[in-house]
Design brief:
Helix content is 67%, strand content 10%. With 340 residues, it is α+β, with helices and mostly antiparallel strands. Helix 8 runs parallel beside helix 9. It folds into two domains: 130 residues, no CATH class; 135 residues, Heat Shock Protein 90 (2-Layer Sandwich). The N terminus is likely disordered. The protein is built from ten helices and five strands.
Length: 340
């Protein structure tokens, strides 16, 4: 008996919250609007001197038809005004992208549809926050793995190749003359492999970023790109930048690195401009080329990774075609965004 008594208040609370759901509230509003229209129409017919004969006369049929048309028109206008915000909500649902955060639908009024829009905006806030947190964890793990691989390349592979070079040098000195040229060729191949290993380790872990700062790292990145692709890079790097956190500097470096990699692989460009400037609202990174552009191609994993990195520091990444041909990648970092 006591169990039944305890369950009744719980059921009453559940029924109370169920009756206040947006669907139930919208149903009540539409029902009241439709009922109000028909009640007003019926009241007009009651108090008016109009009568209906048997059989119905032509003018009476006209009056009834006009009255019914007016009722339907008023009902349609009221329903349309009540449901119009749902069009904007549907359009936002179709174009929403968590990699382009911040887009919300304006909430107007205090009705049930406004409550639905407000709930949807709150859901987007939660999804974007969770996406940002998961991206931060994934990218932190990626950077940690890159650092580990770079360290192993430098300490293990690099030192092993260096030891092989030293041992081969002693072998060349003691080898017969007819084998020395052959051994020197092997020596050069090992030396080239050692250089490639060091270059890969440098790309995986930008030590110059930690040792010499962002501007030196950007300059070294442009130099490496020019040497590898034989495409000149015009550098416009402002010396006086606001204080940036290590995470922000790393995001700027990685996005510039990915942009130059995409240019080398796909753009077929003849020149590139790398710009890092101080704007009124923060810092702007621009990478522009004169290549063939995106040509309507879908964004690949590289660009999506760039967008995820931009979200981490509250920055805005835009890609747009250049009027003279090519593509401009721009990253805008607001002042103070990196502190978040």
């Amino acid at each position: 008996m006591s169990g039944l008594v305890d369950q009744r208040p719980q059921r009453d609370r559940n029924n109370h919250w169920a009756s206040r759901t947006p669907a139930a509230a919208l149903f009540r509003r539409l029902f009241l609007v439709t009922g109000l229209v028909f009640v007003v129409g019926a009241a007009v017919l009651v108090v008016s001197p109009a009568t209906v004969s048997t059989p119905v006369l032509v003018w009476e049929a006209i009056v009834l038809t006009v009255g019914l048309a007016l009722m339907l028109a008023v009902n349609a206008l009221l329903l349309r005004a009540s449901l119009k915000p749902l069009d904007g909500l549907t359009a936002l649902m179709e174009r929403v992208d968590l990699l382009r955060p911040g887009e919300r639908l304006a909430v107007r009024g205090n009705g049930d549809v406004a409550h639905l829009i407000h709930t949807f905006n709150d859901m987007l806030d939660r999804l974007e926050a969770e996406r940002g947190a998961s991206s931060a964890r994934a990218l932190a793990a990626q950077e940690g793995e890159r650092q580990r691989i770079a360290q192993e390349l430098h300490d293990e592979i690099g030192q092993s190749l260096t030891a092989v070079l030293l041992g081969l040098k002693r072998t060349v000195d003691r080898a017969p003359r007819d084998l020395q040229d052959e051994l020197r060729g092997v020596q050069e191949m090992i030396r080239a492999s050692l250089g490639e290993v060091r270059q890969v380790a440098r790309r995986l872990r930008p030590g110059v970023l930690d040792d010499l700062g962002l501007l030196s790292a950007m300059s070294a990145l442009a130099t490496d790109f020019s040497e590898a692709s034989e495409v000149p890079v015009a550098r416009r790097l402002v010396q006086r930048l606001p204080a940036l956190s290590r995470d922000t500097e790393l995001v700027l470096y990685r996005i510039a690195q990915e942009s130059l990699t995409n240019i080398a692989r796909h753009a077929e460009a003849s020149w590139v401009e790398l710009s890092l400037s101080r704007e009124r609202d923060g810092v702007a990174l621009r990478i522009t080329d004169d290549g063939r552009g995106m040509n309507g191609c879908t964004e690949g994993a590289g660009i999506r990774g760039m967008r995820e990195r931009a979200i981490l520091i509250g920055a805005r990444l835009t890609l747009r075609p250049v009027p003279t041909g090519g593509t401009e990648v721009r990253l805008d970092v607001p002042v103070g965004a990196e502190r978040g």
